[in-house]
Write a structure and sequence with these properties.
About 45% of the residues lie in helices and about 10% in strands. With about 270 residues, it is of the alpha+beta class. The protein has two domains: about 1-200, Hypothetical protein af1432; about 210-265, no CATH class. Strands 4-3-2-1-5 form a five-stranded antiparallel β-sheet, with helices on one face. A hairpin with a 5-residue loop joins β3 (about 230-235) and β4 (about 240-250). The chain is globular, with a radius of gyration of 19 Å.
């Protein structure tokens, strides 16, 4: 646990001083490792949690607690058979029942850490719960759910559907956020859904977008108060030809230009 606390302390300190390495967020958003998602998911969610906790203006100590809870939020998956975790098609009813028990396994593993880390164990036990009672394993509702579990549960879904898994392909970040708003609006507080958009923007750094001109740009800067108008670097022109000298366009200053869609990197041509 000491190593985990040191890691979280360093990330929180770097973020508070304004020099959190951009590569850390870029890797968390874009790096793909479907075969080792059990390792990458908690790390990615930890980075996300610290960033979103800052958006929510959590004090430093609570930010560190949130980060530590995120790092261990799905520890119980180590007790789920690999043939279930890495299955590349739908789970049977029996297999799904085994998987849904992992928050309880997380709680058992983390409870031995004692009272000092009781919030870590409680968060892990509740990370799959939902405000409307549709979650598992206990079907908790509303304020019965630990605030950290609400935040981390939302970020865990965002991380999962915006990265490849053995059983499905990822959604672009724009589509991932839209899917969450569409399907989970009753499962999470509106303030958390708003903070998710503010933290990551609909078009995160290094994602690609299509403009109404037909050009394709790579997002190089986002603005919390204008999430639909990032600063982009044009990489493909309107004829889908790669530009020789990329140029930056700040959409918040361009009344006639706007984003019409997100573009997956693998779908780029030119």
């Amino acid at each position: 646990m000491d190593g985990g606390e040191h890691l979280i302390e360093e990330i929180v300190r770097a973020h508070s001083l304004g020099y959190l390495p951009q590569e850390l967020l870029t890797q968390a958003l874009h790096m793909e490792a479907a075969s080792s998602f059990l390792v990458t998911n908690p790390v990615n969610v930890t980075v996300y949690a610290i960033l979103m906790g800052a958006t929510l203006k959590l004090p430093r100590e609570r930010l560190k607690e949130l980060g530590l809870a995120a790092l261990f939020h799905d520890l119980g998956k180590i007790r789920v058979p690999e043939e279930i975790l890495y299955k590349d098609k739908g789970l049977s009813e029996k297999e799904w029942a085994v998987l849904k028990n992992y928050p309880h396994e997380s709680f058992k593993l983390l409870s031995v850490l004692g009272d000092k880390y009781s919030y870590v164990a409680e968060t892990a036990a509740q990370v799959c719960e939902a405000l409307d009672g549709s979650g598992y394993p206990q079907g908790l509702r509303g304020e019965e759910i630990h605030p950290y579990a609400q935040i981390i549960g939302l970020l865990d879904i965002f991380e999962a559907i915006s990265h490849n898994r053995p059983y499905r392909q990822k959604l672009p970040h724009f589509e991932a956020i839209k899917e969450i708003i569409r399907t989970k609006k009753h499962a999470f507080h509106k303030d958390l859904l708003k903070a998710l958009i503010q933290t990551f923007s609909l078009f995160p750094i290094h994602s690609h977008v299509k403009l109404n001109s037909g050009a394709i740009g790579r997002v190089i800067q986002t603005y919390g108060d204008q999430v639909l108008r990032p600063r982009v670097e044009i990489v493909l022109d309107a004829q889908k030809k790669r530009v020789l000298i990329p140029r930056a366009v700040d959409l918040k200053d361009q009344a006639l230009l706007h984003v019409v869609d997100a573009v997956a990197e693998e779908n780029l041509v030119g």
